[in-house]
User: What shape does this take?
Amino acid sequence: DWTPAHFITDTIAALKKQIGDNKVVMAISGGVDSTVAATLISRAVGDKLHGIFVDNGVLRKDEYETVLKTYKKLGLNVKGIDAKDDFYKKLKGKTDPEKKRKAIGKLFIEIFQQEAKKIKGVSFLGQGTIYPDVIESVSVHGPSVTIKSHHNVGGLPKKMHLSLVEPLRNLFKDEVRKVGTELGIPEDMISRHPFPGPGLAIRILGEVTEEKVKLLQKADDIYVKALKDHNLYATVWQAGSILLPVRSVGVMGDERTYEFTVALRAVTSVDGMTADWAHLPYDFLANVSNDIINSVRGINRVVYDISSKPPATIEWE
Ligand code: XMP
Assistant: This one.
């Protein structure tokens, strides 16, 4: 019988055998899959796992600090790399969604490779690949971009002569979550919505700047916290905020404002391939809208996305 406990015991034994006295390098993102995979590897070989967590400047508000703290608590040997400024430099002037994605993916791989090189005698590359990733070779965005392209360091194993360690290769998402819970990974991390590798960069339409990131982080944080407070977070498959590249007129006290609009998105879905917009309660949306407009200077209008996929996609870019 498959149980999380049995899976963990068997997998740790298999990982010990596979890895032996060698070292494993792995990019960890704060997502469920990479966190569960890294925890399993760490239980098997301890600090021979070298995790790398990169702040690419387009994470959610406080995410870098929070995730690093959780990793420390879990006893993972993870190095945090603050590369925000490098990413902002690469994103400067770029407005095309695919160019933004590529710029982020390329820099991420460069940084990861640089860090991996510093670890003497590393021979394995850890990855949080799960069964649906294995079977889903077709991209949702067309030929150039696949889901998880950001963490798909596919070219690396060959180039760096690394062998893959993928302890979750045969599991579905719900099984990964059960294993994670059994491993003592906090509920917050286990029940996280999927978050795209290029992060807020594809939720800031047009050019990404540090100022826009800060603006969107504030609005998004209000939205996500409210979803959690009202027990709505778990009822949707994914939720997020999008910063639109238009400004519109508003009024505040007796002053005229001319500020940005944020779009809120929440969808129900099974696998992200199709999705329906979530019918969040009007009262809830009204409160979130008020909170954002009253507390985030620079945003004077909030709209709710009522488009389903297809033909709309979940992300706006
Ligand atoms: P779309 O927008 O195509 O998104 O309906 C479907 C799912 O894929 C995620 N997504 C990405 N994930 N890199 C990622 O790692 C990407 O470039 C990317 N684009 C979309 C999206 O968040 C949703 O869960």
